Amino acid sequence: MTFAELSVYFQKLETTASRITMTEILAELFKKVSSDDAGFISYLLQGRVAPVFAPIEFGIADKLMIRAIALAVNKADEEVTTLFKKLGDLGNAAEDLKKRVPGETLAIKKVFTLLSEIATAQGAGSQEKKLQLLAQLIKQVDPLSARYIVRIPLNKLRLGFSDMTILDSLSWMLTGDKSQRKAIETAYNVRPDLGFIAGTLKEKGIAGLKHTKPEPGTPILMARANRLSSATEILAKIGRCAIEFKYDGLRLQVHKKDHKVHMFSRNLEDVTPMFPDIAGAVLKQIQARQVIFEGEVVAYNPQTGVHVPFQETMQRKRKYDIAAKVLEIPVKLYSFELLFLDHKNYLYEPYIERKKALKKLIKPGNTIVYAQEEITEDEKAVDRMFDESVELHFEGIMAKKLAGVYEAGVRGWNWIKYKKAMNKNLSDTIDVLVMGYTLGEGKRTSFGVGQFLAGIYDPKQEIFLSVTKVGTGLTDEQFREFITRTKKLHVSAQPKEYVIDKLLEPDIWLRPQLVVELGCDEITRSPVHTAGRIMGPSKSGSAQEVKTPGFALRFPRLERFRDDKTPRDVTTIKEIEGMFEQQGKKR
Length: 587
Known about the structure:
By secondary structure, this protein is an alpha+beta fold. The termini are far apart.
């Protein structure tokens, strides 16, 4: 397939908001291409040239792209800039200028290879190399292809769907429905590489994914816990179980293959550069050729040995002076899960067997330690461990089913979290996606933000639904950090994935990326928020009426920014419903 043909599909996807229609378009596309092209297309649909966990970014700013377009069409930079300001999109500007310049037909592989070369160019002269390659590529292609070739390196492709829609489409490609989605997603949770999944399906069919195994260097989507709010409920649900502290740190998945070590956060980001001390400890303390295990990184005060909050652990996330931060903010890795060891897949082994093998794996040392654990069926013992955890400034406890397998990418009942109460009604915090914000007034004018709109996730429909607006309870420093974090997330129109009431439309829309953790006094009902809202039929041609009000957060407050979570990791509509019911029981 040529890139020109692929661009027609991009255009179809861009102009539809229907999830089913998108799925059908993608299925038709995948059905037409070879296994190699299926892999390339899977990455390009994400606006990338590598899996999401590969630390490969284009690093292209608008200014460089303007120069590349001008060079490609033999125009002055100023002329391109003027057209960009008029159209509001550099891709559209390139397409318009290319209408007067003929282009060639390039194969997808050729375009993908050139884009990869642009993304991986490094060192002295790399910006000039990127400029020349971009100009060459834009010059060669047709106008519609130019639109998307410009958007991809700028990270502005934004077709309005997630990996899950692509998985749906791959099932649709095979059977004309979603019947194979579960089997495909199970493989994806173990190997979240869309290129691998699509290429394997094209070459070997669904049977090729049946025995997908972990691969050191490719992160496994982390298992997630359901939540309960008492020892009684936990033991009634899973019986005798293992109780661990729920550490207030950064969840880490460690991969070792021979002498190479990689570490990934729960959002699949390669965070290896943050923790050179842990990488060194892995080589010393873990005596295995290939291994994948998980734990929680927690920073501590070197003078007192007392653990410090999550925010201080995240100060390690920087590009420079890492060595100084290692000394200033030492960390421990509390290990609690073994997923793979020397060609043996432990995902489907019961918890008790995984833990037995993990204990043998970790050699004594100061950096990697075995997580606190107690196996019990006694409510008093569960409550005692909960109290101990809170006294140590951790978040609470995790209860794990002794016979439970590791459910990659799934929020199941093999793991249950029980967190310290924020207040008497609502236990646990809520993770939300920041959807947009209003401009500030009065004192807020200096920050440029008044309130931000936040939403939760409906995984069935792959949409985000509004649940609160947050404007009070933020410090000046938090407001400034908010503006810094959102500068590159502005989009000109409401993203397709957002479902909100007209009354809540923000001044500035943000693409789905920034996740924050909120505390609040309670979950209430609101007719304007769309999370859980049910609309009734309209009466005599008028607008639909609210049949069941949506959920809202009373007195929400920003707890922290969650760099370790993706939009898909935020609290779901089902979780909010459960928390609302639990809140009622407490009353």
